Amino acid sequence: MPNTAPLHPVVTSAHIRQQLKADLIGKDSYRGVTLSYSWLANQFGHLSLGFIPTLILCLCLEKCGQNWGATWAPVIVSGIWLAFETYNFLGPLLSNNQSNSKLLFVPKKGKYVFQPSWWNIAFDTMTDLGFFWLGAFVCARLFSGEGWQIIVIVVLLVLLILPVRYWYGVKIYQQNARYPFQARLSQWDQALHPQNLQAVKDFMQQSRNERMHLLLFGPDGSGKTSLAVGIANELSIQQHACAYITAAKLYSLFAQEDPTPTVPIRLWTWREAATLIIDDVNPGQPVKDEIMSADEFKNYLLDPTHGANNKNAITTKNLVWVMGSDGAHKVHEWKEMLESIGVKSNNILVVDLALPA
């Protein structure tokens, strides 16, 4: 039987209510801004970008003596946003190029190393459009008493329930992973050796059924951390409980009990996460020597008090090791260490970014 840990969502409706309360009450200048709060603010902005242009258009048409402004203004504004978002979405999809523009698609030569999740992006686009349209029709309703506009508003509110629940939950998954920055796998644009590319794809696919370990080697500046965060963030968006931690911090946690999970600070610990990134295990070139060998890591792992829990946590989750050192010299030592604590050899994949593309 596969050695699996539960990957079902751990963010419940109760967690969402607690997070929503934390986001809406209090001063963000005092406590900082969460990803879930930023998402709420973003959707309020989309609502306003539907409301304000409709308001301006209605006032202009009313001043010009046109009595059809409140009827057609929301339709016109909604159509403009539909065309805009369609252009933004289909541009990179059809050309297979990246876009650096936040407003309009601007093609460039580079191709994606990892294809974006187009269905996920389409779902996000439709969510944005729902808020644009809602703002437009709410504004128009203030200028007229037409019943069909109420029907449109109600339909939009109903259709937005599922997207709001999904995206707000996703932001909770992402912020509780505590990534050092936000990045998706498709944003990683450095050239990859075909062997490395296949290893990442295998990890993403096989980690759904098996607990996989990805040893990510490479010199300083090769994009190890960015690649690791991109991989785990894709799983966070699929509502898997992920966690990011540096090796230096983890060494101290090996000897500690897990703190009680709290909202909105932390819903799961590194031991409870389904996928874990261990960053900066070693610095890599130009630093020639390893700071932490595989045997030394194992000694810390098998703490006299919590060794059994630590071992179980490492072997029953997906794990991305950001190693630093060149894989050709040290990979066998780390594979042997993992196998000695119960990780199956077939479940260990290697990416060596020192390999030329």
Explain what this protein looks like in three dimensions.
The chain is an alpha/beta fold and 357 residues long. It folds into two domains: 13-177, no CATH class; 185-352, Rossmann fold (3-Layer(aba) Sandwich), CATH 3.40.50. It is built from twelve helices and five strands. It has helices spanning 13-24, 28-31, 35-63, 69-95, 118-143, 147-177, 194-206, 224-237, 247-253, 294-301, 307-315, 327-340; strands at residues 213-217, 242-246, 275-279, 318-322, 348-352. A five-stranded parallel sheet has the order 2-3-4-1-5, with helices on both faces. α9 (247-253) links the parallel β2 and β3. α3 (35-63) crosses α5 (118-143), α3 runs antiparallel to α6 and α4 runs antiparallel to α5 (118-143). The radius of gyration is 24 Å and the shape is elongated.
The CATH topology label of the largest domain is Rossmann fold
Q: Helix and strand succession?
A: HHHHHHHEHEHEHHEHE
> pLDDT average, as an integer?
86
Strand order of the largest sheet: 2-3-4-1-5
- How many distinct beta strands? 5
The coarse overall form would be elongated
Instruction: Tell me the fraction of residues in β-strands, as a range.
Output: 5-15%
Helix percent reads: 40-55%
